[in-house]
Amino acid sequence: MKYDAVVMGGGLAGLICGIRLTQSGLSCAIVSAGQNALHFSSGSLDLLTHLPDGTQVEQPLSMLEALKQQAPSHPYSLIGAEKVAELAKLAQTTLQQAGLHLKGSCEENHYRITPLGHKRMTWLSPESVPTTALHQPMELGKIAVVGIEGFLDFQPQMVADELDRQGLEAEACYVHLPLLDRLRENPSEFRAINVARWLDRPENMAQIVEEIAPLVANADAVFMPACIGLDSEEPMLELQKRLGKPLFLLPTLPPSLLGIRLHEMLLRQFRRQGGIMMPGDKVTSVNFVGSRIESVQTRNHGNISLKAKHFVLATGSFFNNGLVAKFDQVYEPLMNLDLGEIGDRAKWTNKEFFASQPYMAFGVQTDGNLRGKKHGETIENLYIAGAVLSGFDPLTQGCGAGVSLVTGLYAANEIVNEFAKDQAMQAEVAQ
Ligand SMILES: Cc1cc2nc3c(=O)[nH]c(=O)nc-3n(C[C@H](O)[C@H](O)[C@H](O)COP(=O)(O)OP(=O)(O)OC[C@H]3O[C@@H](n4cnc5c(N)ncnc54)[C@H](O)[C@@H]3O)c2cc1C
Asked: Where is the FAD-dependent oxidoreductase 2 FAD-binding domain positioned along the sequence (predicted)?
């Protein structure tokens, strides 16, 4: 099987890369072993919320030079401020074209409300998530925070208490939905995704409205756990219409409906554009010819190799086995690629629990064009994208999704440019 490009890993980085490649007319296959970080994420996407020294970032694009001073090996520093700005804007457009309704801009962060009712800075949030602009109070009037009886992954009282502390007027209540009784019999099944499968059925809408409406009659706005609208926003919009007041969804404990929907929308866009997704498959070995990759082997395809002119490694970090840690060793398991600075075992972690943990920045080292290296030699046709990269801490710097989107698009653009150059050369030779 031969493609223009093969992407290893179908998380946010791999998918956005595949979307850009197929949008540009290239053939692309994505091999993806399993779930990705989006399934566990808030559904909001961070670009940059803090510098490594803890300085809060309100306007991400204007702080990229300061970031470079403090973190020269951060992927944004390698790519360069101008390119990052261009790619962050391209990410916004590409997500929108995939049908995602997101609010926010790379020019300025906003606050989203977390599942505990706190304010957290971010770049892009689903339209359905409650957000507020920086330095502006949230003006929603009286908020009803509705929990679902038996659903333990969302505690309305905690949210309401925190909103009250911030000076908002919020009241918690629980709705009993008889249609969920069957789920309630088994608490381990009572998760956001399973709840959504019931709430999303059009025939259940009347009962949902009947139970919730009296509870929120005196409220100006309603907050609910993100348990509705798995495949599309339609059921949530319908409920909002029938309640007759703004309805907002708060992310729950994983599995995260908002993250899964984001993943599904991107996957659909990739497939719509002719991309080949190989879900549940895993790249097991990589075949080199000199300093280039010729093909990869996968678990499900046995002896049939996937050949391509370019390859992208987007296998994620420790969370998804894109990196592996043994007691005194960290390595990239597919090709044993060169890693960034690892340092002494004793310095992998910081005793202060909430401080930046050094191991979070471990990952694959690249050249200035995000190409991987082995024994110091650049692999000419291998780009690295997303969480598997070294040099950044997605948690304390609030840049996880941003790095995946920006580097995934960077890799795709480099590949598209290579093809354009090849074509121009062939045209010249033919003349
Ligand atoms: C639990 C969690 C929550 C997060 N929440 C947020 C958030 O709310 N907002 C935010 O901005 N950022 C968040 N992040 C940061 C996150 O890292 C990025 O947002 C981003 O989703 C990472 O995408 P990725 O594609 O680089 O890697 P991943 O999402 O990890 O995807 C890698 C994929 O590669 C596959 N894979 C691995 N090895 C192979 C192989 N050999 N062959 C084929 N496939 C393979 C994996 O199965 C996986 O599907 C979160 C991270 C984690 C871990």
From this structure: 4-403
